[in-house]
Design goal:
four-stranded antiparallel beta sheet; 2 domains
């Protein structure tokens, strides 16, 4: 009979083994959920091409006085204008009462670098790209709906509600800027 009682005792489930199986199953399940969730979460990160354009550097030394260049930042065109002394003087002489979106010329440029004007090249009306050195005010003219901007990129005439946007930028040296 002793042998029968030993057999009966060994047929009983081992609680320690059951707990181990529960923990092991939960751990494998958690790893499986993580393996499925990671690609889903990772695909929500910005594309590498967008990250590459988060900021851009530009050498101003090639921009002649009185001319503009258009560069790309975050997929949008940006005007960089090397203004003449006459253009700066003209922009600063405009009374604030004449402006639809009042903003001084000094607020639109970096101190000590007044000759360089940096603006996102999209009309604030419907996002068209204005034409430089055009319009009644010698700045930019949007051919889509007739908005006109002055030599500081401020809206002077037409349906656009705001001035051309000045992006965040800084001078890394006297001739190199970083936008963004």
């Amino acid at each position: 009979m002793a042998t029968e009682s030993n057999l009966a005792h060994n047929d009983q489930p081992n609680p320690g083994r059951r707990d181990f199986l529960y923990v092991a199953t939960a751990a494998v399940g958690a790893v499986g959920v993580g393996a499925v969730a990671w690609p889903v979460i990772n695909q929500m990160n910005p594309d590498a091409s967008v990250l590459a354009l988060a900021s851009t550097e530009f050498d101003l030394s090639g921009v002649e006085e009185g001319s503009s260049v258009t560069i790309k930042w975050r997929g949008s065109p940006v005007f960089v204008r090397h203004r003449t002394a006459a253009e700066i003087e003209e922009a600063r002489a405009v009374p604030m009462s004449d402006l639809k979106d009042p903003e001084t010329d000094e607020a639109r440029v970096k101190e000590g670098h007044d000759q360089y004007l940096v603006m996102v090249a999209l009309c604030t009306h419907l996002g068209c790209v204005p034409v430089g050195d055009a319009g009644e005010f010698g700045g930019w003219f949007c051919p889509c709906h007739g908005s006109e901007y002055d030599t500081s990129g401020r809206i002077r005439k037409g349906p656009a509600p705001k001035n051309l946007v000045v992006p965040p930028y800084q001078f890394l040296s006297d001739s190199v800027i970083q936008i963004g």
